[in-house]
Fold this sequence. Notes:
CATH topology of chain A: Arp2/3 complex 21 kDa subunit ARPC3
CATH class of chain A: Mainly Alpha
Number of helices of chain A: 8
Structural class of chain A: mainly alpha
Structural class of chain B: mainly alpha
Largest sheet of chain A: 2 strands, antiparallel
Radius of gyration of chain B: 21 Å
Oligomer: heterodimer
Low-confidence stretches of chain A: none
Order of helices and strands of chain B: HHH
Strand content of chain A: under 5%
Strand order of the largest sheet of chain A: 1-2
CATH architecture of chain A: Orthogonal Bundle
Distance between the termini of chain A: 60 Å
Distance between the termini of chain B: 18 Å
Number of strands of chain B: 0
Mean pLDDT of chain B: 86
Order of helices and strands of chain A: HHEEHHHHHH
Helix content of chain B: 40-55%
Number of helices of chain B: 3
Radius of gyration of chain A: 19 Å
Shape of chain B: extended
Largest interface: A-B, 84 and 77 residues
Mean pLDDT of chain A: 96
Strand content of chain B: under 5%
Number of strands of chain A: 2
Amino acid sequence: MHVPDGFLDAPTSIATGAVAVAGIAVALRGARRELDDRTAPMAGLVAAFVFAAQMLNFPVGAGTSGHLLGGALAAVLVGPWTAALCLAVVLLVQGLLFADGGITALGTNISLFSIVAVGVGWLVFAGLRAVLPTRLSIVPAAAGVAAFVSVPVTAAVFVGLFAIGGQAPVPLDTMLTAMLGWHVLIGVGEALITGLVVSSVVAARPDLCFGARPALRARREALVASTGQQAAA
Amino acid sequence: MKTAMKTKTFLLSGLLVALVLGGVVSFYASSHPDGLEYVAEEVGFIDSAGDHAAADGPMADYAVKGVDDQRLAGGLAGVIGIGVTLLLAGGIAFAVRRRGGSGADGADVDRAPVPSER
């Protein structure tokens, strides 16, 4: 969903650029609470993984393809603030080195990926986690659902930006329908990849999955309580 | 209790998976336009896209210039991109992290018992 140069007019691109800069500034502060000596390497790995995964366009029907956005995936693995930074780095590298995503559209792309996709992904994940049982086994499924939702929402926000500053006179309702239709399908791929990757991390090292921390803590407390009872008996 | 994977093993395995995906599997990725591009063609605003300012760059469109073999040119671009992304994101993460191990957020409590790691 990388927006190229020219889709949006200059004022809109400048505005999204300002939003992106403000978002990164806030994320830099927020990420401080998520990162320590143990989790900092995870941030590098997650960004690198998202970069690699975004090269893998999968077919989604007649002549169309999609690839992972990675917003929900990164948010669940390293926390939402760090995830926003990871996605911004991926977009910067893609735009500057690989001509993928416009340079004047960098603010738009960072707003869409780092703020909308990460934000929606994290909020849906955290919402599900709050209502579901506190168990490690629900983490990959909740991440998958969050990933699914994040894709069409991000697509809809792009249509919103196009309504404000689009450079071509096109029927917006047709555009919205087409964008949502294709991105619901792409969202299924996003959900599958996200669920698979999160479940692999949770299986190998649940402590390195940011979103799994409450479940891991609950499991440990239950373990301590049961051994305590055994000792008392 | 099952023994957790060592942190170093975990990180290196993750990086290896990324390198294989970006360096090898990417050759087999679909070359069809993505959702946005397809809709832009269908709805009719694709022509508003300008040429990319870095379109003539040495690795534009994920192919290293001067490498004739397509598989190699793409794979190399993927590996370089992964390396740059890893260093940049990892560097930023190390710069903003809390110093001196795990701290305030209760991250210490979450630490899995890894007997072999010290």
